[in-house]
Amino acid sequence: MATRGYLGNFELMVMLVLIRLGDDAYGVPISHELEARTGREVALGSVYAALERLEGKGFVSSSLGNPTSARGGRAKRYFRVTAKGLREVRAAQRIFTGLWRSIPTLKGGIA
Amino acid sequence: MRHTEPPSAATWLLTHLGRRNESLIGDLLEEYRRGRSSNWYWRQVVAAIAVDLGKPVLFALAIFFIYRIAAHIQVPGANGEALAALGRTAGATTLWKYDLVTGGNLSHATIFALGITPYISASIVVQVMALVWWSLTDRRATPWQLPIVRLTWATAIVLCVIQAAGIALFLERLTRIPGTLPLVFSPGWAFRASTILTLTAGSACLMWISDELTGRRIGNGMLLIFIVALLSGVPATLMSRADPIASMAQVAGTLGIVALTSYGYRRAIEARQRPSVSA
Predict the structure, then answer these.
(1) Contact residues, chain B, for A31 at CB < 8 Å
(2) CA distance B16 to chain A (A)
(3) Helix, strand, coil shares of chain B as percentages rounded to 5?
(4) Is the same domain home to B85 and B217?
(5) Co-location of B39 and B122 in the same domain
(6) B24 vs A49: CB contact, 8 Å cut-off?
(7) A63 in contact with B at a CB cutoff of 8 Å?
(8) Which of B156, B171, B204, B272 is the most exposed, fewest CB within 10 Å of its CB?
(9) Of the candidates A43, A45, A72, which has its C-beta nearest B26's C-beta?
(10) In this predicted model, what pLDDT tens digit does every residue of B222-236 receive, in sequence order?
(11) What is the DSSP string of B107-148?
(12) H-helix segments, B21-89
């Protein structure tokens, strides 16, 4: 049986945030979006750990921006979802939607 | 009045204990300057270090496990019971310090008898050579392509062969002295060759694990393996010493030298991996 890199719950959230943010996806806006959506404080270290895992699976690619003085001369690292990553998100959506619809009591909860 | 710079102690900890993720440090600074509190900064730093240190701790436990297994695998042709008796008396001899840094593997003549020390010695020699030998400053993409890494490996293998031959001859000599422990079943070239091959392969295995740990940015491989070996040998060896406190101080001094050496080796590789700055 072929093995595939399933997305964890937090990883899927990070992927969806990356798609939503588009070209401006680096650590700070990613964590802001996650905090706004979950209502909880997010550790940037965990966000980077998830992004590095996703990059290792080939779902995300990254590039360095220009260093700025507001960041103590450190560059921003921008992240983008790859075509492979996008396919994985769509596959996860199909699985979740199918599972959700198979539970009668929660059926009304999805659009 | 609020400072524009975050708590310097937290930044220092993140830089030295974490994996030096410059983008993450920049993100935290940007957020702090936008008005986040010092408490928030500290929480983020602690979480980032915990995430970074998780893997090294697991790997350290795995290496510890490997060391414990290796402690039961002796070189072919050696007398296990006689070596165990020698190991019990090693604490009282000049052998104790060398035995300690190999986690007790030296006195038991196991496959890790040489430990990671030949690699550490080689890296000291090559770092000094790199200061005067210009061709060692070549910049390449991967560590294995670097002349400094290849030369360190070659020097370490030569040191392993010399030290392993020394151990084989030492065990044979002890065996030949009448009334002493029969440490080797049948002394001769076959025993010497198999000991050299086994001990060199054992150390090369540790050197490979060390490079993997460093290359995967899990931690300073050389230092991690040295500390694990030290910890697995400390209780048994120190307990048999008459002066455990003074012995401990000597061990701490050795650890300091190893830390400096491994840090220097890592920096030397990182400096050569960076692309050259063009005008």
Answers:
(1) 27
(2) 15
(3) 75, 0, 25
(4) yes
(5) no
(6) no
(7) no
(8) B204
(9) A72
(10) 888 888 887 776 666
(11) TTTBTTTTTTHHHHHHHHHHHHHHHH-GGGG---SSGGGSHH
(12) 22-33, 38-70, 80-89
- Who among A27, A41, A70 is closest to B24 (CB)? A27
Q: Which residues contact B21 (CB under 8 A, 6 or more apart)?
A: A48, B48
- Report the domain count for chain B: 2
Q: Report the candidate in B208, B207, B59, B58 with the shortest Cα–Cα distance to residue B119.
A: B207
Q: Does A35 lie at the interface with B, CB-CB under 8 angstroms? A: no
Asked if A53 and A65 touch (Cβ cutoff 8 Å), the reply is no
Looking from the CA of B155 toward its CB, the CA atoms found within 13 Å total 19
Phi/psi at B4 (5° precision): -85, -15
Domain range annotation of chain A: 9-82
Q: Are residues B23 and B83 in the same domain?
A: no
Name the β-bridge partners of A75: A67
Partner residue opposite A75 with nearest CB, options B26, B50, B52: B26
Structure tokens at B226: 């040295």
In this structure, CATH architecture of domain A9-82: Orthogonal Bundle (1.10)
Question: B216: domain CATH number?
Answer: 1.10.3370.10
My answer on whether B14 and B113 are in the same domain is no
ipTM score: 0.85
User: What element of type H or E holds A81?
Assistant: strand A74-81
pLDDT, position A2:
41
Greater confidence (B265 vs A99) lies with: A99
* B117 plus B183 within the same structural domain: yes
Q: Is residue B58 one of the residues assigned to a domain? A: no
pTM of the model: 0.60
